[in-house]
Structure formats: structure tokens, C-alpha cells
Design a protein that fits this description.
With 461 residues, the protein is of the alpha+beta class. Helix content is 40%, strand content 16%. The protein has helices at 5-8, 31-40, 43-50, 62-74, 90-96, 104-113, 116-137, 203-217, 234-242, 257-265, 334-342, 345-357, 368-392, 412-420, 441-460, and strands at residues 25-26, 141-148, 151-153, 161-162, 172-174, 177-181, 186-191, 222-227, 246-251, 270-271, 276-283, 292-300, 321-328, 424-427, 434-437. The strands form three sheets. It has a nine-stranded mixed beta sheet with strand order 7-6-2-8-9-13-12-11-10. A three-stranded antiparallel beta sheet has the order 1-14-15, covered by helices on one side. It has a three-stranded antiparallel beta sheet with strand order 3-5-4, with no helix packed on it. A hairpin with a 4-residue loop joins strand 10 (270-271) and strand 11. Helix 7 (116-137) runs parallel beside helix 13. The mean pLDDT is 89.
Length: 461
């Protein structure tokens, strides 16, 4: 359809007159979806149970403040001081069930007062919500990925230490270990640690606890685990194998000089695709009591390797190629095992989204438990956004070789910009609340479709 120039353009030279009035305007009209969704999953009551052990009646109960932190992160805000930006927003108040939003000092004080019992209860609730979703979809395979992620800070917060930090060398940090579920792209649990520990510190008990929790929830599913070379050890490999868990673990070249010689002596490589070749061997390190399947993989390098190659005593070098070794107990063809292990990259995407969109890299207070609670608020915001999409849409994939998620998810930031950050006006005509939003046909269809998908689930529950 063509329009005339006069129908498209308009002159606007005069500046509008500014007025500031209390008209119950909201910048986050899309929160009406989350208000309905939180009622569906009974989030407020569940959070109250996490803080029930604390005595004393306060104006702002701790569960409401923690819910505010979840909403705070859903809105895309980071520092605690940013809660001033929505202190007068009527829809945020209604979602929290408050007439007045807590100020910065109140939120900070609640975080500082948090103890280990609060952290354990919130971690338990986080696990239960993820496992409930797993039980509802009953996947044939449940794939667990384990890896750590650095939380750097300029504070001298309790429990931080100077460790490896790529972006801020010499900074104090935490180094939590995360367990994520590949099928739902949710975080199942985490193990909080100081920044100066190795990836494997406390990892064995944490890994086995996560496996036991998933097995109890979906006993018929085949449990799979993927890890990088930091977790490679005889104890972890034997523990996984004895529990009947299928695994692939990267092998560090630095600890086994034999690996370099095996690769350099190899002349015939089998093809995976145009970029990858492999060979396999039944092998074990000298002190191990059992042989396992080791896959040796050669990948065409896209970048030229730079640096003092002559000083590389352990890592094999051949111009134009990169090498890695995987240990596994899977009986699939080597091509499928390689693709399966490459699927670990999805966890890096989770960490990127958690840090950029849910700000888990922010350390708000000086107490360790308070910082863990803030980290948990970010994990809840992320997992709940995933759960909202799973509850309102159908799975779009089956199990793939790389174990891609069963749903094609929108990022938290995309949900925020397309749904949450919508201007609206909250009115109360004839005793009924009404939320008025601009007449955008796409937004109207999206909001109504999502709300209609949530409400039947609420009635069924």
C-alpha cells in the first residue's frame, strides 16, 4: 500500500509541555504475565517456606524481598540502588503485594542477614522446580553439564579470594560450580566456592548428588554427563561408571605424556566430517585399574597457532590442526560421541546469558550468604523465564546428537524487551482493575496468547 507524503510526514517543531502527575502509569505492563505465572507455580508460598525458620515479624518479610530481587533482575536492573527506578510503579507493587517498595537499605540488610539455612532452602526449591519440569516431560535421556564460572569483584567480600580471572587479573572472586540440564537449558544446582580453588574442588560429591536427584525424579531416563578436562580423574570416572551413568570427559594432555606420542605416531585418521577426524583406543593411565574408551580427535584449526611452539612439551602440534582427547563409556559410533561432546557449548551460552541478562556476576554485599542469595535470585529469574516458555509452548525438537534443548528458547533479554518493557496505565473503573496498553497488534496477540496458555494450566492445577 502506498501513502502520500502528507499522510506520512508531520512537522513537530514545538516542544511539549512537561507535567509530572500521579496517574498510575507503568513502564512494565508485561509483568501482568509474570503475576499470573507466579500464581500458577505458587511461587510466593514456596519462597515463604524457605524463610519460615527465621523468627520475628517485620514490615517486609524476607520472602517478599527475595521476590523483589527476582523481579529486579527480570526488569534488567543490576545494582541494588537501581530499585529506585521502579519504586512508584503500580504493577510492580501489585506483583509483590505491597503498597510501598522496600528501599535500598532494607534490601541490603535482608541480604546481609541471610544465613546458610536460607541458602540451602532456596537451592532445594530451585532443584525441585527444575525436577518437576523434568518429570512432566519424562525425557528418554537427561543430560547434565558441569562447569564453573568466575564471579569477580572489587569488594573484599567474605569467602572471596584471588584466583584465575581472565577479564580482571588479580581481582578477588568466587568460583561456583554449576550443573545445568541440556534438555531444558535450566540450572539445576550450584556449589559455591572461593575464587582460588581448582574446578574439581568438592566436585565429586556435588556431581553425584545432582545425578542422584535426577535419577530419583526420572528413574526411567538414561543419565548422561559431559565435563571438561578439569574434572578428569580416576575417582570421578569410576564413580560415574559404577552408577551406570554415560559420560564424556575431556582429557588433559599435561598429565599424560603418552597421549602426545600416540597422536604423533598415528598415520591413519577416520573422518567425522570435512573439519574433524578421529581414532580410538582402549587405554588407561598407569595407576588406573580399568581400561576405558579414549577418542583422539583432530580438528582443522581456523586460526594460526602463535607462540613458542618449541616449548610445548605435552600438547601435540601439527600446523593447521588442533587436538583433543575424550574418555567415554558410551558405546555409540565415534562420530555421534564427538557430536555429543561438542554439545557442551550450550552451557557456555547459559553462562553468558546468566551474566549479561541476569547479572549473576554482580557481588552486592560483603557477606558470603548474602551474595549466594543474590546469585540464587538470578538463577530463579533465568529458570522461571525458561519455565514460562515451556509452560506456554510445545517442544519443537526431539533428542539430537548434540542434545540441543527440546524447546527453542528466547533469551531473557528478548522476553524483557518484547513483553515486559511495555508502557501501560493501571485504572480502577467501577471497582475492577484495568491495565491499558498501546494498541500494537503484535503485542496484543502475544500477550493474550501467553495469558491464555497460562490460565488453563492454573485452573487445571
Amino acid at each position: 500500500m502506498k501513502f502520500s507524503r502528507s499522510a506520512v510526514r508531520q512537522k513537530a517543531h514545538a516542544l511539549p509541555e512537561l507535567r509530572f502527575e500521579n496517574q498510575k502509569l507503568t513502564s512494565f505492563a508485561g509483568l501482568v504475565i509474570f503475576q499470573t505465572f507466579f500464581a500458577t507455580v505458587d511461587l510466593k508460598a514456596s519462597l515463604r517456606g524457605c524463610f519460615r525458620h527465621l523468627n520475628g515479624k517485620k514490615v517486609y518479610d524476607r520472602a517478599t524481598v527475595f521476590l523483589q530481587l527476582i523481579v529486579h533482575l527480570l526488569l534488567g536492573l543490576r545494582d541494588l540502588q537501581h530499585c529506585r527506578y521502579y519504586r512508584d510503579d503500580p504493577l510492580v507493587k501489585r506483583l509483590l503485594g505491597l503498597k510501598r517498595i522496600p528501599d535500598v537499605a532494607t534490601v541490603s540488610r535482608v541480604l546481609k542477614e541471610a544465613g546458610t539455612k536460607c541458602v540451602e532452602n532456596l537451592r532445594r526449591l530451585l532443584r525441585e522446580m527444575v525436577l518437576d519440569r523434568l518429570m512432566s516431560i519424562a525425557p528418554a535421556r537427561s543430560t547434565l553439564d558441569f562447569d564453573g564460572s568466575v564471579q569477580a569483584t572489587k569488594r573484599r567480600a567474605e569467602g572471596t579470594a584471588v584466583g584465575y580471572c581472565k577479564k580482571k587479573k588479580g581481582a578477588r572472586s568466587y568460583y561456583p560450580l554449576f550443573c545445568t540440564i541440556a534438555q531444558t537449558l535450566q540450572v539445576l544446582d550450584f556449589l559455591h566456592r572461593s575464587g582460588n580453588v581448582h574446578d574439581s574442588n568438592g566436585a565429586e560429591a556435588f556431581i553425584l548428588a545432582c545425578i542422584d536427584a535426577v535419577r530419583a525424579a526420572v528413574p526411567s531416563a538414561v543419565i548422561e554427563v559431559r565435563m571438561d578436562s578439569a574434572f578428569f580423574s580416576d575417582r570421578i570416572v569410576r564413580a560415574l561408571n559404577e552408577r551406570g551413568v554415560e559420560f564424556t570427559i575431556s582429557v588433559p594432555f599435561e598429565r599424560f605424556t603418552e597421549l602426545k606420542g600416540m597422536i604423533e605416531q598415528r598415520r591413519r585418521w577416520r573422518r567425522v566430517d570435512g573439519e574433524t577426524w578421529y581414532f580410538e583406543n582402549e587405554w588407561k593411565p598407569k595407576r588406573w585399574g580399568q581400561r576405558f574408551r579414549f577418542l583422539f580427535i583432530r580438528t582443522r584449526a581456523k586460526k594460526q597457532q602463535k607462540g613458542p611452539v618449541q616449548l610445548d612439551l605435552f600438547i601435540p602440534y601439527e600446523y593447521g590442526y588442533e587436538f583433543k582427547v575424550i574418555v567415554t563409556n558410551k558405546t555409540l559410533r565415534a562420530k555421534r560421541v564427538v557430536r555429543y561432546h561438542e554439545g557442551r557449548g550450550s552451557q557456555e551460552g547459559i553462562f553468558g546469558e546468566l551474566k549479561s541478562d541476569c547479572h549473576i556476576d554482580y557481588v552486592p554485599v560483603r557477606t558470603r550468604c548474602g551474595n549466594e542469595v543474590y546469585l540464587l535470585a538470578g538463577l530463579f529469574a533465568y529458570n522461571l523465564t525458561r519455565e514460562l516458555q515451556m509452560q506456554t509452548t510445545q517442544p519443537s525438537r526431539r533428542t539430537t546428537a548434540k542434545r540441543a534443548s527440546l524447546w527453542v528458547f528466547e533469551r531473557v533479554d528478548t522476553v524483557r524487551k518484547t513483553l515486559i518493557q511495555r508502557a501501560g496505565r493501571l485504572t480502577h473503573p467501577n471497582g475492577a482493575y484495568r491495565l491499558t496498553i498501546s494498541a500494537n497488534a503484535w503485542i496484543r496477540a502475544r500477550l493474550l496468547r501467553t495469558l491464555n496458555a497460562i490460565q488453563p494450566a492454573q485452573e487445571t492445577g
